[in-house]
């Protein structure tokens, strides 16, 4: 509920501080007095953009504050999600600096216009002549049915199912694209893998073969070298082993007389034993070396294959070939596994679709049950406001699954006829501005019984009505105010007479400036204002009496 509206230095307003009633608040004033300026200021704290500069005094900033009582609106989660401090009386402030820059605050915490707009939508519903276009939209028409049917939980479940179905369907489409792409290269990958797999690649094999090739190609030179070394170490007259053995014997003979030679004897003995071992190993290796033409051909062919594969696949080593082979194998396995994934995901999509269709039908059935109630209620209210022959017919059809929307699984049409003999047609084609105003008022009064909308503002929706009809419209607004706070800007005395609080907007000149002001009328001033609305600036006794009767009625 809007408790208070404070406006400073905005357009023709120098300072306004308005305290609103919890029920029906009437706002009147001559055309051009500044009622639209007040609505513009209110729009700024509801998240509308500041178009241009709006200053009563050019050297001061503009400040607009709204004080809202929100303890019954269950907005704690919204405040928490947007990191705002919650208070049962929430203050929304908008400041426009001299340079045109704008800032917004909720309980002194700075917020973006997006957050401000989201909060504003939950605090106030402004119903103007322009807003009557809502009635022509499918979203609004479905909202009416859902509000009357109390479909909030069913609609939420439907939206969750729709979101889950779309996500799973997107995943399925991506998987199908991946499979198609993988299948397009599968044959080529399989060919490359088979070629590498049949080569029986082993890590380190190339290095071993290259070493073996070098040995096979140089077998004679290697054998000659080994034989020469063996001869010098053990077979020549001055062989190393013979000389070492002789030297060892000489040192051992000296050791008897010089105990200090023991260490040298041990070292020389170790050298002699090591040389003998070397001679044995050289001899063994010499026996192993021989010219094997068959093996040479085999090694050359194997290395030729490895070099050829590396060149073909543009890699520099055998280990890279092995890595490529393993990668190709994984790609082939992925294609094989994707078939199973596809089957599982198709089952999941079918399951989600079944749940979505069930939720869509449940929502459709609930809306169908609410249709008759909406039709009868609106027709009853329209008869009350001077349209006894008006008819409203709602058509609701269940969509094909692939055409489901976020608003539900339905197409909806509001068909309307204002007069006898007039065929039912889409409401925006046959209803005049005044008729649309009354239809919207009927709809809003119905929705107000089930909606948690806190404050509704009727901004001059009384176009095209007068007399007894206007009086009935005022009575409906009065009934609305039993469930919610209502602000009505009107030019009709029949509606103006119905408020619990009546405010008058007026202009006055101060020096060289004209400014807009507002005042809460007392009982006598209210009678005078309604009388002036009935008969002009200088109402007579009959007009005053009529005004008094309207107010007391």
UniProtKB/TrEMBL annotation:
Pfam family, one: SMC_N
Coiled-coil annotated residue ranges, if any: 148-222, 325-362
GO biological process: DNA recombination; DNA repair; SOS response
Keyword rRNA-binding: no
Keyword annotations of the record: ATP-binding, Coiled coil, DNA damage, DNA repair, Nucleotide-binding
Alphabetized PANTHER family for the sequence: DNA REPAIR PROTEIN RECN (PTHR11059)
Main function: May be involved in recombinational repair of damaged DNA.
Name assigned to this protein: DNA repair protein RecN
Species annotation: Sphingobacterium phlebotomi
Lineage: Bacteria, Pseudomonadati, Bacteroidota, Sphingobacteriia, Sphingobacteriales
């Amino acid at each position: 509920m809007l408790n208070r509206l404070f406006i400073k230095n905005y357009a023709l307003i120098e300072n306004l501080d308005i305290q609103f009633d919890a029920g029906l608040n009437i706002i009147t004033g001559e055309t051009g007095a500044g009622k639209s300026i007040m609505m513009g200021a209110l729009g700024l704290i509801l998240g509308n953009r500041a178009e241009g500069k709006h200053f009563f005094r050019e050297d001061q900033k503009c400040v607009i504050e709204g004080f809202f009582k929100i303890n019954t609106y269950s907005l704690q989660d919204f405040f928490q999600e947007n990191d705002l401090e919650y208070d049962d009386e929430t203050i929304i402030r908008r400041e426009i600096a001299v340079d045109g820059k704008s800032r917004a605050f909720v309980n002194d915490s700075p917020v973006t216009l997006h957050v401000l707009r989201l909060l504003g939508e939950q605090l106030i519903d402004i119903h103007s002549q322009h807003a009557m276009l809502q009635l022509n939209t499918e979203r609004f028409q479905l909202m009416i049915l859902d509000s009357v049917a109390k479909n909030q939980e069913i609609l939420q479940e439907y939206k969750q199912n729709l979101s889950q179905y779309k996500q799973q369907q997107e995943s399925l489409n991506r998987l199908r694209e991946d499979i198609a792409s993988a299948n397009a290269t599968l044959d080529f990958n399989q060919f490359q893998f088979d070629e590498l797999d049949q080569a029986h690649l082993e890590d380190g094999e190339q290095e071993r073969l290259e070493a073996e090739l070098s040995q096979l190609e140089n077998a004679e030179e290697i054998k000659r070298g080994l034989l020469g070394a063996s001869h010098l170490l053990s077979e020549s007259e001055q062989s190393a082993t013979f000389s070492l053995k002789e030297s060892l014997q000489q040192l051992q003979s000296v050791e008897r007389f010089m105990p200090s030679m023991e260490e040298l004897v041990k070292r020389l003995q170790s050298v002699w034993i090591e040389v003998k071992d070397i001679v044995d190993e050289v001899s063994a290796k010499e026996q192993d070396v021989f010219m094997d033409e068959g093996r040479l051909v085999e090694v050359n062919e194997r290395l030729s294959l490895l070099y050829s594969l590396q060149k073909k696949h543009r890699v520099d080593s055998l280990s890279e070939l092995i890595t490529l082979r393993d990668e190709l194998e994984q790609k082939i396995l992925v294609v094989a596994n994707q078939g199973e994934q596809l089957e599982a995901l198709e089952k999941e999509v079918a399951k989600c679709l079944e749940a979505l269709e069930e939720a869509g039908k449940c929502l459709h059935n609930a809306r169908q049950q609410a249709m008759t109630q909406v039709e009868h209620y609106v027709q009853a209210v329209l008869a009350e406001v001077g349209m006894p022959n008006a008819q409203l017919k709602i058509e609701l059809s269940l969509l094909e699954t692939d055409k489901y929307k976020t608003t539900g699984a339905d197409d909806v049409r509001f068909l309307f006829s204002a007069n006898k003999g007039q065929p039912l047609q889409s409401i925006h084609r046959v209803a005049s501005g005044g008729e649309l105003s009354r239809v919207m008022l009927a709809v809003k009064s119905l929705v107000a019984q089930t909606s948690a909308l806190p404050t509704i503002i009727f901004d001059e929706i009384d176009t095209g009505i007068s007399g007894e009809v206007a009086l009935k419209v005022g009575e409906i607004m009065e009934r609305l105010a039993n469930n919610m706070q209502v602000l009505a800007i009107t030019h009709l005395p029949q509606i103006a007479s119905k408020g619990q609080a009546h405010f008058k907007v007026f202009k006055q000149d101060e020096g060289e400036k004209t400014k807009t002001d507002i005042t809460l009328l007392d009982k006598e001033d209210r009678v005078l204002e309604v009388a002036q609305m009935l008969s002009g600036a200088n109402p007579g006794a009959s007009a005053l009496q009529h005004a008094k009767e309207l107010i007391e009625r």
